[in-house]
Amino acid sequence: MIKGVSTVVGESPSLDPDVRLMLQVREGDETSFGILVQKHRNAVVHFLYRMVLEQAVAEELAQEVFFRVYRSRESYEATAKFTTWMFRIATHLALNWLRDEKRERAQERLDEPARGSKDGGDELPARQVADRRPTTEQRMLYDARLQEVRDAVTALPDKQRAAVLMHKYGDMEYSQIATVLECSESAVKSLLFRAYETLRRKLAHMARGAA
Amino acid sequence: MITCPSRRETTLLLDYASGRLSAAESASVAQHAKECDDCAAALLEYSSVSDALDLWEAPPVSAHFNRRLWDRIESAASAPFYLRIADWFRFHSLKPAIPVAAAALVIAAGFLLDHPSGMNTPPATARVSATEADQAERTLDDLQLLRQFDAAVGGDVRGKPAPRPARPM
């Protein structure tokens, strides 16, 4: 279980309104917990979706995240920003799920060698993508680009992927990401630098604003 | 790989492209990029990557998310004690402890089955007394045998048939 989160320089848990809400949850105020869920569920589910690439799994893991938050209410201590703690739980669950999934896929490959063509990026399930293009041609172009982005991010090592998702979509500070990933801030910068260098090689050909 | 000295801070250009720098820092980087082709190219690529990542939108969260969560919280609170214990192990990431605890139980059960009277074992002094009585009885038997043997040997000498010694059981 992920318990106390060490205080990180630059974070001010006492000023964090979410921490105040969580302290009220600790006192038995379930309304405050409802507010926290409502406020952060999109960020958590979206982060997990981009990690595991399956909406149903992402929601299930997000349920587990909030369940753990609720279960930990009595022992909660305001030592870091609430979102740092929450994303630490989410990342922990996502990385565990990815590890188990890889193990299962490896086992499936051993069990069913005839299905070799299903391996790799082609086996990603169909995604629900918002159709924002008026024409079929534009939609196809959009889908192709989206698939390219998704494949590039998915191909990153798990920790790099988590760092990129928290940096890009979670808009989290380096110190927060460092706490979540249990490494130093300089290690996070190094992770992100390597990840973005990889993404540059794969995605930089997409002209700005082309989509 | 870009070798510009401005890359000493590995995420400087990335921070610029993602709008994380202060106004002064941004102006400094922009000024540098005007004079450095490598950094200008890198900034363009970082911006392209950032825009490409913006394409990836996640699906909306299902409408029943909150209700499912509350249902789970309520069902966990009203679950039987053994399920709550199992959940406690799972919650505390103590999965490895479960097989260890099970193995310890099996070993303990095996020991008890192998030593059913282990709890009623007589004290050591009682065991010693029983052993001594057994030895004394055997010694008396041996003495009786020797006496019978002596009598038989004496009879032979005196011309009497020797009685057949019989070891008492």
Low-confidence stretches of chain B: 156-162
Strand % of chain B is under 5%
CATH class of chain A: Mainly Alpha
- Order of helix and strand elements from N to C terminus of chain A: HHHHHHHH
Task: Specify the CATH homologous superfamily of chain A.
Answer: RNA polymerase sigma factor, region 2, helix turn helix motif
Instruction: State which percent range the strand residues of chain A make up.
Output: under 5%
Shape of chain A: globular
Task: Quickly give the structural class of chain A.
Answer: mainly alpha
Distance between the termini of chain B: 100 Å
Cα shape of chain B: elongated
Question: Helix proportion of residues of chain B, in percent?
Answer: 55-70%
Low-confidence stretches of chain A: 1-10, 115-125
Could you please describe the fold and organization of this structure?
The complex is a heterodimer of chains A (211) and B (169). With 211 residues, chain A is mainly alpha-helical. In chain A, 65% of the residues lie in helices and 0% in strands. Chain A has one domain: Orthogonal Bundle (Rna Polymerase Sigma Factor, Chain: A), CATH 1.10.1740. Chain A has helices spanning 17-26, 30-52, 55-71, 82-111, 136-154, 158-168, 174-181, 185-203. The longest helix of chain A is centred in the middle third of the chain and has 30 residues, at 82-111. The model of chain A is unreliable at 1-10 and 115-125 (pLDDT under 50). Chain B has three domains: 5-54, no CATH class; 86-117; 124-169, no CATH class. Chain B is built from seven helices and no strands. Chain B is elongated and about 130 Å long. The chains are: A mainly alpha (211), B mainly alpha (169). Chain A binds chain B through residues 1, 34, 37-38, 41-42, 45-46, 49-50, 55, 58-59, 62-63, 66-68, 70-71, 127-130, 142, 145-146, 148-150, 153, 164, 167-169, 174, 189-190, 192-193, 196, 199-200, 203-209, 211, and chain B through 10-11, 14, 18, 42, 44-53, 55-59, 61-62, 65-66, 68-69, 72-73, 76, 91-93.
